[in-house]
């Protein structure tokens, strides 16, 4: 189980004890607000944008790769973790209260950049009009190499994982909010094969996992949340215990254990750069797993689902991904507009022209009125 982190009042330079090197690492920053802030339900996108802007300032080539690379992303970002309050259906950060924000790197270039950045952290994390003071940092997951994970994989046949933020998989155009072993390991294997230089044969490995890795116990809860550019995600949080059958060849069981040790670094499922899929080793206490969720965020996610179903049903040709994408886009714009967000903010988040978003909002509103008048 991951031990609790302890921060002092020292500045960011207090974290200089991290030895340089490694092919993966995880760090966590302690931040605080000097006054009370009400967070936008989509604030994870702001954390993502701020992180990439920090990379761009010092390493433009790496920034371009993180922005545009078509492979797996070699980093993950958590959402803010701490004692949120709720006011008017929104998460509120109380003043002078420590919160944590975690970052992992999955290849040497990102790890090296994190090492240098951690030695000269900015004083503030600028989060959409809610500046947070950076008070310090600590190593969350120690620097390791992929060969170390493989060579030092524990021999035990069972392991527990805790999913401390909503976790989901893409499955046939939908979200799969269940930790099916084959999906879990496919998620880890994609990152491993992209970054390790020690490829594992995908089909053979996953066939064995499907037959011989089982869930021994679980404690899970399904949740809806907003993530990324548009739409909502149905995910799960909680804990599971996995076991690999002794019938698996020794090398494959070693690979299973290595990937489980890799899980906290790479996260689980999709949208791990927007705070989803945060994973820890061990069976964590319920209060450490159930991350605070703003009721407004859940309401927006539910409203997006409701509206997208409505818009899709109104289209004469319901088949195909284009119809589904349009329905989700209209639903996202209208649901966020109904929650009080400006069209300017929505357009910026969705990276769309303002006039297009304005037109879609009108069309979506008209579609709901037509439905209500029927």
Automatic annotation (TrEMBL):
CRISPR-associated protein Cas6-like N-terminal domain residues: 39-82
Pfam families: CRISPR_Cas6, CRISPR_Cas6_N
Keyword Protease attached: no
Residue span(s) of domain CRISPR-associated protein Cas6 C-terminal: 161-279
Source taxon at top rank: Bacteria
Alphabetized UniProt keyword annotations: Antiviral defense, Endonuclease, Hydrolase, Nuclease
Protein name as catalogued: CRISPR-associated endoribonuclease Cas6
